[in-house]
Amino acid sequence: MFFFFVNRWQIFKSAPKETHPFWWQIVFGFRIMSDAELAKFSSYIFGQAFTTLKCQASQYLPWMEKRFKSNGGHLECRKVYNVWDLHGTYDVVVNCSALGSRDLFGDQSIYPVKGQVLEVNAPWIKHFIRDGDGNSYIYPGISVVTLGGTRQKDDWSCMPNAQATKDILDRCCHLEPSLSGVSVIQEKVGLRPTRSALRIEKDILIKNGQQLLVIHNYGHGGGGFSIHWGTAKTATKLLQELIPLIHNVSMKSKL
Ligand SMILES: Cc1cc2nc3c(=O)[nH]c(=O)nc-3n(C[C@H](O)[C@H](O)[C@H](O)COP(=O)(O)OP(=O)(O)OC[C@H]3O[C@@H](n4cnc5c(N)ncnc54)[C@H](O)[C@@H]3O)c2cc1C
């Protein structure tokens, strides 16, 4: 079980522009928090309560890999230094290289937003609590609670930072004082592959009279798990549109 329901409080120090975000009918039981609920959070004046799904990525990704392989998919793990090295071996390249697209495709508009989180042992935490500014959050998972976070644009370091750990703990203890003194199991760092807009499109590269068919699917920023199913479906549709072209390209190369 790697998807499960979680109740969430999203709280604001000043009233947000929209009391009801665009996704309010997608989540379950969306409502504005009562004054009694808000009283628990000093310095917060407005809140939204709802139930949504959490994905336990550490379990979901291995499951997806297994599913891919059991459907005939083959995995080969290696760095691609030049996308043209794939020409002749594969009919189409689906580019999900995210930040790697800077070097592979010369896309300088994608950049990292470093994020640090802490995994802590706090089994009594059952509610997902998030400051509306998105910087501080307490996210209960299956076996640990994740405390966040940080957002550092253009920071390529994947090393945890001790000051960030202290800041995250301070902010999360302010949100939920029972976390005071909690034991940190692990500090985790990731780079959100950020772009002003996702890139999901067909691309036909041409070099020395040769064509390389590419589908781009990258730039998921801080929401890749939330939206990956939809972006993968769009990329698949684009791939289906390219299939007639694949035959033309291989016919030509045979003539
Ligand atoms: C702290 C933090 C919290 C987050 N929280 C959430 C959340 O709550 N909800 C949510 O939806 N999302 C969240 N995200 C965002 C989510 O993790 C990303 O959007 C998602 O991982 C992006 O996936 P991706 O496959 O597009 O890119 P990546 O995960 O960056 O994968 C790209 C892959 O391409 C490979 N690659 C690159 N270049 C090459 C090359 N030349 N040759 C071979 N391989 C290459 C890389 O090694 C990597 O494996 C969070 C991210 C962080 C850091």
Provide key terms for this protein.
single chain, 255 residues, alpha+beta, nine-stranded mixed sheet, three-stranded mixed sheet, 5 helices, 12 strands, elongated, binds flavin-adenine dinucleotide
Itemize the secondary structure elements and their pairings.
Layout: E1 3-12, E2 28-32, H1 35-38, E3 46-55, H2 57-70, E4 92-95, H3 101-105, E5 111-120, E6 127-131, E7 137-140, E8 145-148, E9 152-153, H4 162-175, E10 184-194, E11 199-207, E12 210-218, H5 224-254
Parallel strand pairs: 1-6, 4-12
Antiparallel strand pairs: 1-3, 2-3, 5-8, 5-9, 5-10, 6-7, 7-8, 11-12
Bound molecules: flavin-adenine dinucleotide.
Describe this structure in words.
- A hairpin with a 4-residue loop joins strand 7 and strand 8.
- The chain contains 5 helices and 12 strands.
- Strands 1, 2, 3, 5, 6, 7, 8, 9 and 10 form a 9-stranded mixed beta sheet that branches. It has a 3-stranded mixed beta sheet with strand order 4-12-11, covered by helices on one side.
- Helices cover 27% and strands 33% of the residues.
- The termini are far apart.
- It is an alpha+beta fold and 255 residues long.
- The model has no long low-confidence stretch (mean pLDDT 94).
- Belongs to the DAMOX/DASOX family.
- It catalyses: D-glutamate + O2 + H2O = 2-oxoglutarate + H2O2 + NH4(+); D-aspartate + O2 + H2O = oxaloacetate + H2O2 + NH4(+).
- Its EC number is 1.4.3.1.
